[in-house]
Amino acid sequence: MDLKDLEVFCEAARRSSFAGASLEIGTTSAHISKRIAILESQLGVRLFHRTTRRVVITEDGERAYQWAQRILDDANAMSEAFSSAKKEPSGPLRIATSQRLGREHVAPILSALGKRYPRIEVWLELMDRRVDLITENFDLDIRVGDPTQPRLIAQRMVESRRILCASPDYLAQHGHPKTVAELAEHECLLFRERDQPFGNWRLMGPRGMEAVKVTSRFSSNHSDVVRGWSIDGKGICLLSIWDVAQPLVEGRVMRVLPAYHEPADIWAMTSTRTAGSAKVRVCVEFLKKQLANGPHALNINPEVPRS
């Protein structure tokens, strides 16, 4: 049984499409169909129900998928074990992260990683949802905030927090809230990062954790959009401190309720399947170092001028 055929089958199963699998692998739908037909003949079962528009995995196909994934994982683990022994990390590395963190920080750091380890092949996917590392076949997820998730291993990369900010014009017109509860009376710009609760702000302060339900006419899943609205005087935002560091330094926004923040550390999430991989290990170590101190590091301690 050819391992390549198992890879083709797993890709088609994940995408429920021969065409989608062919685009991912870089071949034709006809080739995908031929290789799966050979695998079906070897196993003596039908793996997919085929229609003119899509393919649907059969019950036997589901069982075969679990076996195939385990076989491929074991083969990759064997390769990684010997690669690690030679200290030459290699192979494809699939990474997921959120939009701005990925675009402004993770992507250029991975570019430097590629120069240091030329045998590593990087695939970076930016998305506004939490991925399933196992079923979607990712090696690593770089995420902000709560790392708790069954079957995954979390490694803290950078200690960080979300803070409240607004423009001087907004605060001059609407006043400074004195308590967390008063935020409900203000325009609060809503940013939903992946699976972050929408409109429910939980802030840590002198009296412990305090929660408030906020609303606004303006909301987005892109932090740079929300940051721009805040600078433009549309309301109060709750964003990662590194996300608003530059406008804070420039005085275009000011801290609101500076004694309060929302914990928002940066975490590297791996599965038990990939945690011991040499390529994953060097990537996590490199990202951790560069996010803290490199040229594309997160600015978590901006020097804000005193008013």
Automatic annotation (TrEMBL):
- Report which superkingdom the organism of origin falls in: Bacteria
Q: Which Gene3D superfamilies match?
A: 3.40.190.290, Winged helix-like DNA-binding domain superfamily/Winged helix DNA-binding domain
Q: Which residues form the HTH lysR-type domain?
A: 1-58
Keyword Transcription attributed: yes
| This protein's UniProt keywords | DNA-binding, Transcription, Transcription regulation
Protein family according to the UniProt entry: Belongs to the LysR transcriptional regulatory family.
Q: What is this protein called?
A: LysR family transcriptional regulator
Ranked from the top, the taxonomy reads: Bacteria, Pseudomonadati, Pseudomonadota, Betaproteobacteria, Burkholderiales
